[in-house]
Amino acid sequence: MAKVYKDLREFLATLEEEGQLVRIKEEVNPEPDIGAAGRAASSMPNGPAVLFENITGYKGSVVTNVHGSWQNHALMMGMPKDTPTKEQFEELNARWDKYPVPPNVVSREEAPCKENVITENINLFEVLPLYRINEQDGGFFISKASVISGDPEALDDFGRQNVGTYRIQVKDKDRIGIQALPMHDLAVQLEKAERKNEPLPVAIALGNSPLVTFMASTPVGYSQNEYEFVGALQDGVPTDIVPADTAPHLMVPAGAEVVLEGYIIPRVRVVEGPFGEFPGSYSGSRLQCEIQITRITHRTDPIFENLYLGMPWTEIDYLMALNTSVPLYKQIKESFPEVVAVNAMYTHGIGVIISTKCRYGGYGKGVAMRLLSTPHGMPYSKIVIVVDEFVDPFNLEQVMWALTTRVLPHKDVTMIENAPGMPLDPSSNPAGMTTKLIIDATTPVAPEPNPRAVELLKDPVGTAKYTEVIKGLMQAMGDK
Amino acid sequence: MECPRCDSENTRTMVKSPVGDVWEVYVCEDCWYSWRSTETPVVIEKFKLTPAIIATLGVIPPIPPLDL
């Protein structure tokens, strides 16, 4: 049974034991120190989480880069920290099939997130050490929140309850802006409320167990509940949830550090942004929704968990890497069992590499078109590379080999114009419209002709043996 | 106090530091830019706002019609 963390604190303890968390005890300024540390840590090969214990003018602590390396990602899964990326993908795939694992609903008294309650004179700055993440951000952003909302037409339908990550700008002591793009589940629910001019209740959970945060940023179906996936990814161990106080149909993670409760103000849009976004550029100001906070519950001495995002890769990329790859893989595998793996780790699946065996001519292109018609692939994926089943899509050197030796551009490169795109992709024009690119880097199979079929090189007999011999010799040298 | 982004004077102190009296956060009530007194905000030209620009900003998500 894999190690499972009940809350953020348990995960931070493991990260520290494994040498993947550092503490900064000296007093630091909110700007630019916390953002800079997040950038620095995520640029390091084994980037640790960074816990700031003393921030000028604030009571509490901030932790950043908690998910910001493959080592931390593996530990999140309860795997050894040196587990290769593809093995983490395979493990995620296996656990994904345990869905649904219903969560465990605990009583209010059992939920640490209810230890303290604030209902009057709400001041977010008293609870959260807020800071500007990037210099041109229009304010202080909460970048790693799990936002819980329900479907106004089916409040008791747990499946349709959404747990999602949305960017949040602090507008006042008790009011925040939120970005709900039309393709996101929150926008679907908001539209139903706004058609009736009704507020949409929301709960915003900060500082969660690592797989709750991970699932909140995973694209799953509208009627699939994220908490039931958390149990699956926790290898069958249910996650603990508790009803929100102001909107009991909304379930929040029982171990959250902080829960903000309130509602989206209906039919109001106010200036939000700019914000340094995951494609590595700022998205400018727009008129976006606002949330009135009416209640805060929090653990004693809450830890504010937030992430840095900037020029990829940064922490956010680890939260939209394998959890973008797995659902896309599952969806196309269902139609085409020859698909071996999907690497959709690049800019939230804007770039995707699919590895597949080809059953007949044109198969690779067909598989790419299937990916482009999945719920996430349709708006997000723009560049799809298809490689043979023996090419590891997570090994970019192998992918480049396939591109350089399998592709005859005039027949293997296809463009589909005037297609849906991700609005935050600055190359989409107008925002949200793009051209899809498919590069079929698979070896032609019949009836497609392959007039220059080749014999691929194989590793000489004994290569595996010598790998071990050489490793041993290097280890011996290192020990001296 | 002038907003560093839209030059409006319609600004106020949003909050003072919870510990000590070491900083304040200001906010513009026209463009909702906010900044801390310990910062020296430099808003680049591309991100400056005016009432005319604000009036033409994109609306996300669109506000649907009311159900009758």
Describe this protein's structure:
The complex is a heterodimer of chains A (480) and B (68). In chain A, a hairpin with an 8-residue loop joins strand 2 (49-52) and strand 3 (61-64). Chain A contains 15 helices and 24 strands. Chain A has 2 domains: 8-317, Pnp Oxidase, Chain A (Roll); 321-441, UbiD C-terminal domain-like, CATH 3.40.1670.10. The longest helix of chain A is centred in the C-terminal third of the chain and has 17 residues, at 463-479. In chain A, helix 4 crosses helix 10 (322-335). The model of chain A has no long low-confidence stretch (mean pLDDT 96). In chain A, the strands form 5 sheets. In chain A, strands 5, 6, 7, 8, 9, 10, 11, 14, 15 and 18 form a 10-stranded antiparallel beta sheet that branches. Chain A has 480 residues and is of the alpha+beta class. Chain B has 68 residues and is mostly beta strands. Chain B has a domain at 11-55. Chain B contains 1 helix and 4 strands. Chain B has one helix at 51-55, and strands at 11-16, 24-28, 34-36, 59-60. A 3-stranded antiparallel beta sheet of chain B has the order 1-2-3, with no helix packed on it. In chain B, strand 1 (11-16) and strand 2 (24-28) form a beta hairpin. Chain B is extended. The N and C termini of chain B lie far apart (45 Å). The A-B interface holds A 29-31, 56-59, 123, 125-126, 132, 135-136, 138-140, 169-173, 177, 179-182, 187, 190-191, 194-197, 267, 269-272, 274, 282, 284-289, 431 and B 5, 14-15, 17-20, 22-23, 25, 27, 31-36, 38-39, 42-44, 46-47, 49, 54, 57-67. Strand 18 of chain A pairs parallel with strand 4 (59-60) of chain B, so a sheet runs across the interface.
